[in-house]
């Protein structure tokens, strides 16, 4: 299995258009070591010829442009076989609008997420005469690219921000937020870009995995208020923090995962830069994702 991190940042990207936090300021400075990072998406392939995309970010046009493996090989063509959406968040669906232009591909997602797309007529630009829209049930095997067995599974997470009405249920576990399990030969990999908490069943699923891409939105639960950028906690946004009690660093460290890569990293997150937070993640043997990161699992 070959993976390409197309976008490592959370919703908003790095820098975020309206943010003047220290990370965003640095990311706008060409002389800084901190390079801009695009919004949440991962590509997978077995043969380097046909690719599956996990989530379609608002930055997809730029991501495809800078990834030669995803360029057309002829007149009106794409190596993209399928797009799998893991929830209805803007950073994971808005890129679908860029994939119009009467191009055939398969769009996988749960019935709940497909209903979010169907309820908004703008997504009708994905002409059903070309785009094969396939609802996938939890735990059902499907094939993002030929030969790759994948399953989607429930991950704790709330409804998309734009569907919130009052205080959302932060304990939802069902079809609104999912992770993707991929099995090829004796290798097992996971993609979990949004996760509100890690119940025992999910931890057991990830135990011993060869590769896990995991939600690294915030380092501290109170990072937004501490940085003065907002009032919501990570948990209120549907993302368990990396650090602290019940944080992902401690929980995932206990699971004998061979390679753990944080993705969907918010622009406020201090792990973008050298410092104690980044060191803590690296000391656990974990990797901080970045755009263009390539992982080969063979
Ligand atoms: C999230 O991951 O919490 C969402 O992408 C937030 C958003 O839609 O901006
Ligand atoms: Mn997001
Ligand atoms: Zn910022």
From TrEMBL:
The keyword Zinc-finger does not apply. This is Coenzyme PQQ synthesis protein B. Belongs to the PqqB family. Keywords: PQQ biosynthesis, Transport. May be involved in the transport of PQQ or its precursor to the periplasm. Pfam families: Lactamase_B_2. Coiled coil: none annotated.
